[in-house]
């Protein structure tokens, strides 16, 4: 299964809709790695332009590769699919290098986008047809998609009961992966 | 909908299967509150016997009720369903006081339990019939169910692709709530 995901720290927006770079949140790295590994994701890309912030991710990786390994070997397994990148283009290049193909790029957002939508089952069907799929998750107040450039489709926002849908990116990524893989298993 | 959830910090086990008390993880409080609020949970109980640890939760609540309110009012909304308790019995008492009924207590675990199982759809059906349901989530290496006492059913472990299913409790709680509410909406 050629499923890839990326957590974007730039370009994202802040609450005033300005384009910013966000810093690394340690729990994002752990939780999303663990969910990605659980749901068969090939690589979990973390896009972070600031070198100092990337060093935090490298330190987390190194911890689980060395002293943390004995304490909890599962974390090493989860973190082994993590790929740290400076720019979004580097993600695309790595996927092309690894698979020989350009991925179908799928955006996620807590707000409904006026753009071509794809549902969870259709993503599962793409994966079943051995397509290369990259799903994007944002930090801050969400990805600045105009700045990021090309996205092929958007998944619908995750809706619960009522108007409130302010999930953490850790929760949203877990739910999105669960929904796609649950559909994938029925195909 | 009478759906309640509880995050248990005692009695839980450590990696050597000893019964311990775990400390509060700030991201648990935020992420699970936000997911609970999204999926229509009436109250999110945090069970923590240590007073010093409970103070951390109180401080988080107070932050979003005061200086954090202007920065992000969604967090206040999410945290407003949080109920901090010293013991598991206090959770049951509060639910009985609030609803007049004893809840159906449903355990979760990353390992399959040799106990009566309930699936996600059946939980949704209980909720549809206006039953009071309490779902338990563990910290550490999971809840010490023998020590906790009465559980009526277990949900099956969340399975992805392959053997790895080491999700964070934040991811697991989000997925469990999404699965139940997705079923609930189809009834």
Topology:
The structure is a homodimer of 187-residue chains.
Chain A: E1 3-8, E2 12-13, E3 19-20, H1 26-38, E4 43-47, H2 51-65, H3 67-71, H4 73-79, E5 82-85, H5 88-99, E6 104-107, H6 120-128, E7 133-138, H7 145-148, E8 153-154, H8 169-186
Parallel strand pairs in A: 1-4, 1-7, 4-5, 6-7, 6-8
Antiparallel strand pairs in A: 2-3
Give me the count of strands of chain A.
8
How many helix segments of chain A?
8
Strand content of chain A: 15-25%
Oligomer: homodimer
Secondary structure: helix percent of chain A: 40-55%
- Report, as a whole number of angstroms, the end-to-end distance of chain A: 13 Å
Runs of chain A in which pLDDT lies below 50 for 5 or more consecutive residues are none
Biggest interface, which chains?
A: A-B, 36 and 36 residues
Strand order of the largest sheet of chain A: 5-4-1-7-6-8
Largest sheet of chain A: 6 strands, parallel
Radius of gyration of chain A: 16 Å
Following the backbone from N to C, one meets helices and strands of chain A in this order, namely: EEEHEHHHEHEHEHEH
Helix/strand/pairing category of chain A: alpha/beta
Look at the structure and give the mean pLDDT of chain A: 96
